[in-house]
Amino acid sequence: MNNKYIAYLHSCWLSQKELTEIFTHENSPEDFFTHLSDTSLSSYISSSKRRENILNSFNKLSTKQIDTKLEKFGVNIIVLWDSDYPESLLHIPHTPYILYVRWKIPSWDMFWVVWSRKISSYWDKIIKQLVPDIANVFPIVSGWAAWCDTLAHKVCIDSWKQTVVVVWTWIDQTYPVSNQNLFQRVVESWGAIVSIFRIWEPGNPYNFPVRNEIVVGLSRWILVVEAKEKSWSLITASLSLDLWKDLFSVPWDIFSIYHQWTNKLIKKWEAKCVTQISDILEEYNVQVKQIEHKNILTFSDEVEKLIYDTIARNSWNIDMLSDVLAMSPQKLLIKVSALELKWVIKKDMYWKYELV
Predict the structure, then answer these.
(1) What's the fold here for domain 110-284?
(2) In degrees to the nearest 10, what's the CA dihedral of 27, 29, 35, 40?
(3) Is residue 347 classed exposed, middle or buried when 0-12, 13-18 and 19+ CB atoms within 10 A define those classes?
(4) Record: fold of 302-355
(5) pLDDT tens digits for 3-16?
(6) Which of 235, 238, 233 is CA-nearest to residue 250?
(7) pLDDT per position as a tens digit, 246-259
């Protein structure tokens, strides 16, 4: 496989841009790698210091270790001229030359849901309500960050829907560490893990905007649920508009700094207002489909189901539930405790019950 020689060169600190330049003119990655020298590099890299650093890395490189890494993680190497290279990435400002992929990137359009990294119980519900329905029609692509991105991927996996993870390290890094168990579940559920970073690349804050550009490129549609001023969410929304992506936004608190720009995107007609899944699907003449869940919820009686349906619409404490359902708190507590033991509902920090 000639593509592995491009991975070797990438590991010698040749950039994506340099690889594109080199292999626009060179026909054989194997020959170029085997005969790498200051002379061969000088046609493409003017800085002698840079060439020296690349050659130093080349002399220390262990191709056997790289081969072991690629085999261990089942990585497919896709380069710019391959037939399975995503066509959508050709239209972003910095098209990567090489992609490292576990499993397979879907060939059809994908959806990205953008938000802040820390989320409230309100947005937790939004994700759990909207993402499975969206994923029933479009694969969800996201950036594997803690909190919200992780939740979106998990909701897809739990619903047995396809999700694509774009990481800001190489594929062997599991950041955040808490996501380690989810990594394998993504691949097992026919999802994909994608990286444009060289082998052994650790986490780096400068990689975030690069990663986000790839996610925008892979997405056909973007739903923004939180974006404060000067946030990555807002930058992502702006890039999406520049690339003529369809933008949607969820409205909320007009006094919150985290929601001012989601509301402004709607107000300025740059994003369509979304309060339910049909607001998105009607744009593409798609009917809402019944979601097939792997684990079907079971209730011991109608009261448990009534409590579940009520909490699905809003968070309530036991006194509020008693008023809404016209039932005694004592009787409700027994049923609520049963639902907690089944991991169907949970209590938040304000003693209000919400769906798990």
Answers:
(1) Rossmann fold (3.40.50)
(2) 60
(3) middle
(4) Arc Repressor Mutant, subunit A (1.10.10)
(5) 999 999 999 999 99
(6) 233
(7) 899 888 777 766 66
